[in-house]
Specification:
Blueprint: H1 2-16, E1 30-31, E2 42-48, E3 54-60, E4 69-75, E5 79-83, E6 91-97, E7 103-105, E8 109-110
């Protein structure tokens, strides 16, 4: 329950910054679920609709991962390149929040393995 509360608080904080109730998006905010996500690889994350600027958060149902890792804040783009620093097997999903207080989630996806471990913390 603490993890869920932390995620909700993070989202409310993000949404409260610069809220403009008179501005309406022309399209609903939609987050695309990335495919072919590999450990230490680079993945293009995309979304559409809503009102910029956007905040992009990475989240997991795994209690060992911090809730709401911020991948981008205040971007006006509808895509970012993300270097995957999570290990293979990690189940993740994206949350995008916009200026108009809308949020959208991707579907859950799993990081696939690769021979590249250069981005992972050493196990010393």
């Amino acid at each position: 329950m603490t993890r869920a509360l932390s995620v909700v608080c993070t989202l409310l904080l993000v949404m409260s910054i610069g809220t403009n109730a008179q501005t309406q998006p022309s399209e609903l905010l939609v987050v695309d679920t990335p495919s072919n996500v590999t450990q230490c690889g680079v993945t293009n994350l995309t979304w559409s609709g809503g009102l910029p600027p956007y905040t992009v958060l990475l989240n997991s149902l795994d209690a060992t991962m911090p809730a709401g890792a911020n991948l981008a804040a205040g971007t006006f783009n509808t895509s970012i390149l993300w270097t995957v620093t999570q290990p293979a097997g990690q189940g993740l999903f994206l949350i995008v929040a916009d200026f108009g207080v809308s949020t959208a989630n991707s579907k859950r996806f799993v990081v696939q393995s690769s021979n590249d471990t250069s981005c992972l913390p050493s196990s010393e």
